[in-house]
């Protein structure tokens, strides 16, 4: 097997996006377009990955450096293309990095959904000896380079802008993916001219060159159009996003997940579901999320980086974001509606967290409840604790964060403030409206509010009167 080098073109301006952000950094299903391409490449065994940058080069290079790479994937090497004179000119910039042996797989940074098996087929056809092109029949081929054939043989690729009316009828298009033997790539690129509608050095020009030299040009048909659709405009980006989401939804349903509406779920990352999971409409999943057996997700939830364990129910309009620390919702727990779980929220079995309750960096043991309008930050909450409506932990003194420990079976009255660091002893009760700044003994009632007084026959002041 010939060694595989990869060149990803990502220098173009992406004019049609009409954005300050370089095109390849626009996101599809939560990841940059270019990130999808690199993820795909990292599932192949390749020798070298070269990324051509130009427009917004610094931004692109910085972004790439921050992405995780698959095991065994070589760190990408960047080559700047200044100015950008076309895709052929782009690949020319990479030549000094491509050894004479092996083959180069050329990819477009703006075609995000290609799959490793497809690239593998292209490599196999190339065999390190032939020019292999990935093509596809597009129902609407507008904008793409057309594959011009005579009888069956490929003669060349003609870009949409240069195509005659007759050529524009051709539905077989070049997808932007090719595999080329390295030793042929150099002379072929050297022969490119820019005498075309856009005044660019088209990479696609090497096909005619190859044909002139009698080299074999092989076309490999992509299995479906989604894999090879490029993003050039916000419309195309949105269309591709919807198509991709629908595909993910189908895969979820095929594995048994019940979606109220496959058109109203967005997975921007990895969603793992055990058996009998139900997901209502308009839910968004980001990063890594796992849903245990029988989990129910209500409508309009946003859930990121979280593990929801067996039998837990997330009621509508709940926002969960574990960021780096993660969130765990234990078995049989009930969360929401309108709850907010932040990084480090760790809810044990049967915990209840209700409406307008925010939990951050806190552990709630089995059966603890915070049902209404409350804040728990940097807290350790024991089993069966009842945390009243409007109670908050004052965990931040303006400089440092401190912990609040609420031991098992404690009741915290409504509208209490627990000023950390503080421990509420096991079985204790805090009277409603108390501000507790000193730790309390077990089984005690602690009340810090002023004693209630009633003044009999109280006369309210009268308007204008003395
Ligand atoms: C290109 C192909 C076309 C094919 C289509 C598939 C050429 C000439 N045309 O057209 O046949 O059907 O892809 O999606 O190759 N880029 C650079 N440097 C440049 C110009 C572009 O790095 O000087 C990069 C862009 O960032 C992009 C890729 O190359 O990632 C493709 O460029 P783009 O302008 O989008 O080409 P298309 O018109 O889509
Ligand atoms: Ca394109």
List key phrases describing it:
single chain; alpha/beta; Spore Coat Polysaccharide Biosynthesis Protein SpsA, Chain A; binds calcium ion; 8 helices; UDP N-Acetylglucosamine Acyltransferase, domain 1; 466 residues; elongated; 2 domains; binds uridine-diphosphate-N-acetylglucosamine; 22-stranded parallel β-sheet; seven-stranded mixed β-sheet
Name the CATH class of the largest domain. Answer: Alpha Beta
Helicity level = 10-25%
Question: Please, how many helices?
Answer: 8
Strand residues, percent:
25-35%
User: Which second-level CATH architecture of the largest domain applies?
Assistant: Alpha-Beta Complex
What ligands can be seen in this structure? uridine-diphosphate-N-acetylglucosamine, calcium ion
Number of strands: 36
State the fourth-level CATH superfamily of the largest domain.
Answer: Spore Coat Polysaccharide Biosynthesis Protein SpsA, Chain A
For the residues shown, what is the average pLDDT? 96
Q: Secondary-structure map with pairings?
A:
Blueprint: E1 4-10, E2 27-28, E3 31-32, H1 33-41, E4 48-53, H2 57-65, E5 77-80, H3 87-94, E6 103-108, H4 116-126, E7 131-137, E8 146-150, E9 153-158, H5 165-168, E10 172-181, H6 182-190, H7 206-212, E11 217-221, H8 234-254, E12 258-259, E13 265-273, E14 278-279, E15 283-291, E16 296-297, E17 302-308, E18 313-314, E19 319-321, E20 327-329, E21 334-335, E22 340-341, E23 346-347, E24 352-360, E25 363-364, E26 369-377, E27 379-381, E28 386-387, E29 392-394, E30 404-406, E31 411-412, E32 417-419, E33 422-424, E34 429-430, E35 435-436, E36 445-446
Parallel strand pairs: 1-4, 1-6, 4-5, 7-11, 12-14, 13-15, 14-16, 15-17, 16-18, 17-19, 17-20, 18-21, 19-22, 20-23, 21-24, 22-24, 23-25, 24-26, 25-27, 26-28, 27-30, 28-31, 29-32, 30-33, 31-34, 32-35, 34-36
Antiparallel strand pairs: 2-3, 6-10, 7-10, 8-9
């Amino acid at each position: 097997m010939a060694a595989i080098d990869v060149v990803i073109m990502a220098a173009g301006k992406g004019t049609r996006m009409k954005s300050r952000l370089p095109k390849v950094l626009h996101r599809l299903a939560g990841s940059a377009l270019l990130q999808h391409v690199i993820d795909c490449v990292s599932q192949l065994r390749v020798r070298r990955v070269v990324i051509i940058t130009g427009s917004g080069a610094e931004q692109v290079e910085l972004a790439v450096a921050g992405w995780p790479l698959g095991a065994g994937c070589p760190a990408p090497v960047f080559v700047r293309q200044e100015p950008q004179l076309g895709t052929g000119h782009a690949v020319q910039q990479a030549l000094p990095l491509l050894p004479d042996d092996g083959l180069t797989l050329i990819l477009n940074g703006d075609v995000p959904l290609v799959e490793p098996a497809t690239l593998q087929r292209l490599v196999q056809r190339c065999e390190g000896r032939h020019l292999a092109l990935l093509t596809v029949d597009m129902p609407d081929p507008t904008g793409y380079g057309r594959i011009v054939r005579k009888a069956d043989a490929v003669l060349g690729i003609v870009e949409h802008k240069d195509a005659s009316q007759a050529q524009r009828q051709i539905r077989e298009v070049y997808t932007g993916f090719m595999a080329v033997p390295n030793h042929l790539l150099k002379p072929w690129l050297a022969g490119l001219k820019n005498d075309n509608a856009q005044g660019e050095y088209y990479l696609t020009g090497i096909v005619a060159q190859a044909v002139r030299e009698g080299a074999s040009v092989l076309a490999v048909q992509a299995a479906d159009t989604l894999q090879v659709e490029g993003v050039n405009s916000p419309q195309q980006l949105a269309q591709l996003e919807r198509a991709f989401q629908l595909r993910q939804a189908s895969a979820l349903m095929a594995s048994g997940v019940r979606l109220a509406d496959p058109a109203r779920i967005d997975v921007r990352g990895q969603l793992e579901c055990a058996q009998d999971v139900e997901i209502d409409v308009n839910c968004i999943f980001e990063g890594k999320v796992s849903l245990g057996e029988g989990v129910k997700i209500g409508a309009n939830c946003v859930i990121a980086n979280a593990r929801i364990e067996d039998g837990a129910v997330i009621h509508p309009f709940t926002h969960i974001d574990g960021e780096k620390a993660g969130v765990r919702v234990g078995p049989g727990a009930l969360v929401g509606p309108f709850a907010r779980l932040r990084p480090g929220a760790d809810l044990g079995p049967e915990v209840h967290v209700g409406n307008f309750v925010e939990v951050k960096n806190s552990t709630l043991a089995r059966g603890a409840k915070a049902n209404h309008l409350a804040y728990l930050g940097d807290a350790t909450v024991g089993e069966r604790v009842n945390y009243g409506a409007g109670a908050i932990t004052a965990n931040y003194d303006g400089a440092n964060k401190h912990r609040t420990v609420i031991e098992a079976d404690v009741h915290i009255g409504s509208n209490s403030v627990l000023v950390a660091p503080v421990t509420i002893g096991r079985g204790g009760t805090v009277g409603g409206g108390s501000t507790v700044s000193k730790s309390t003994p077990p089984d005690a009632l602690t009340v810090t509010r002023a004693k209630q007084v009633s003044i009999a026959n109280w006369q309210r002041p009268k308007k204008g009167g003395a």
